[in-house]
Amino acid sequence: MTETTSAPFRRVAVIGAGPAGVYASDILQRSEQGENIAIDLFDRYPAPFGLIRYGVAPDHPRIKGIIKALHKVMERGGIRFIGNVDYGRDVTLEELKKHYDAVIFATGAIDDAALNIPGIDLEGSYGAADFVSWYDGHPDYPREWPLEAEQVAVLGNGNVALDVARVVSKHADDLLETEIPDNVYEGLKASPVKDVHVFGRRGPAQVKFTPLELRELSHSKDVDIVLYEEDFEFDEASDESIKTNNQVKTMVNTLANWLVEQEERTEEASRKLHLHFLHQPVEIIEGRNEDGSGTGKVAGIRFERMELDGNARAKSTGEYVEYPVQAVYRAVGYFGSPLADVPFDSEKGVIPNDGGRVLDETGSQVEGIYATGWIKRGPVGLIGHTKGDALETINNLLEDFPNLPGAEQRDSDVVELLESRSVQTTSWEGWLSLDEHERKLGETFTLPGGEARERIKVVEREEMVSVSRGVTAS
Predict the structure, then answer these.
(1) What span, in angstroms and rounded, lies between the C-alpha atoms of 46 and 123?
(2) 304 and 205 in one domain?
């Protein structure tokens, strides 16, 4: 067996410190060649963890477990976090290639997928990803959000759609035990919302959310879940899924039980969360002024009723229904963003690749450039898929190492280059300081039960950087 020490020393840059980037770094570090590889993990934000910090609803307890796992990887040492660095602006690909033998892009997919229907650009029509970034305290998003609607539509039947619907319908005081920023609490507190409608294109057996997400809807206080018997349609393929897939069976049974239980309610909640199936959006309706002119604002939404075709696909019925709403959130998927000097497939929203090896427009491998996570495969799959993605990419990188030319300036520290440009980089030690600072902010707030909040998330980038750089970047 070849000893690890015989392998040449390598430097690798990973762009994106979310789960995909951390897992790729972890697998690379723990490989047989890991002792001879220096790994720098970059992120455009001052804090690590990407989607886990800025893309998941704050009332998800399971997320804490994921963050703990990512923390363990970073606390082990050997992976250097370099935050507050905007790839393409603060540092170019050519500069990274001079300092590193290989560059791995793990930038994810943060944009909303398009929904091309009339009225989609009206005031009051939003992408779910933007709203998620607001309630998660993303540093690059406005601090205000126009929560003025009494009736809201959420389009989509995935986990993000349920997250958005749950946060919009939930009473703000019930979110105080989470890490939501103060501005988000104040915004939700003032919301006049009464009805939140979630619309899916297919039936109850074809939803894309998980049983955990579904069950969490029932945990909201003073929020009734409302279902409609005419939406419970099952074709042959649906019946087969219910018989053979325990997850589908669990979700269908949960929904069916809620349908029955709602008939037994003796009191009504102040807010209602409606779950609709077999609805395809066809138009967002514009409001009208007294003179008949358009207001430019959302006043309703029109759907075509669908039916299943026997193979769990939805087909048209020619029947249309309308709902009065003043806000629409589309949660129909995420889409990747192009990166400077990196090939990009604008139709799929990914970096074209073969097993993580980046390909140019001719289909040839781009030497030393790799991709992993959603920017590699598209925004599908859970954490387990992200780990598998990373393993494939890293295995191919390790296989390629002997043929890579090597960095010209391997002994030069890229952080010195960044700091010379007045880029205020943040470090892992800086994140630990910010983490402690946020927890102390939580201790200053007492919940109705007498306990303190676990943390209050810092929103402003300048404050995040200032707190983080209280510890010398390394």
Answers:
(1) 32
(2) yes
3-state helix/strand/coil string of 422-445? CCCCECHHHHHHHHHHHHHHHHCC
Answer yes or no: is 279 within a domain.
yes
Average pLDDT, integer, range 45-54: 92
Q: 134 pLDDT exceeds 90?
A: yes
CB neighbour class for 356 (10 Å; exposed up to 12, middle 13-18, buried from 19) = buried
Nearest-angstrom CA–CA distance, 454 and 440? 8
CA distance 318 to 404: 59
Taking only the tens place, the pLDDT of each residue in 142-192 is 999 999 999 999 999 999 999 999 999 999 999 998 889 999 999 999 999
Query: DSSP states of 118-129 as a string?
Result: TTTTSBTEEEHH
Q: Which domain holds residue 224?
A: 112-334
Angle at 60 between CA 57 and CA 64, to 5 degrees: 110
The sheet that has 279-288: what strands, in order across it? 279-288, 294-308, 314-323
Asked if 283 and 122 touch (Cβ cutoff 8 Å), the reply is no
- Give 214's Cβ-side CA count (13 Å radius): 22
Contact 382, 365 (CB under 8 A): no
Q: The dihedral of CA 391, 396, 399, 404: what is its sign?
A: negative
- 376 and 269 fall within a common domain: no
Let me know: does 338 contact 346? Beta carbons within 8 Å. Answer: yes
Give the number of domains in the chain: 2
- The pLDDT score that the predictor gives to residue 472 is 46
User: Could you tell me if 77 and 185 lie in one domain?
Assistant: no
**Do 134 and 236 lie in a common domain?**
yes
* Crossing angle between the packed helical segments 159-169 and 128-135, to the nearest 10 degrees: 50
- pLDDT tens-digit profile of 317-367? 999 999 999 999 999 988 999 999 999 999 999 999 999 999 999 999 999
Does residue 39 contact residue 28 with C-beta atoms inside 8 Å?
yes
> Does a structural domain hold residue 137?
yes
Q: DSSP characters for 163-188? A: HHHHHHHS-GGGGTTTT--HHHHHHH
| CA nearest neighbour of 168 among 231, 210, 126, 113 | 126
125 in the same domain as 153: yes
How confident is the model at residue 6, as a pLDDT? 56
CA distance 194 to 181: 23
CB 328 within 8 A of CB 301: yes
| Domain membership flag for residue 160 | yes
Whole-prediction pTM = 0.92
Tell which of 334, 353, 378 closes a domain: 334
pLDDT over 70, % of the chain: 96
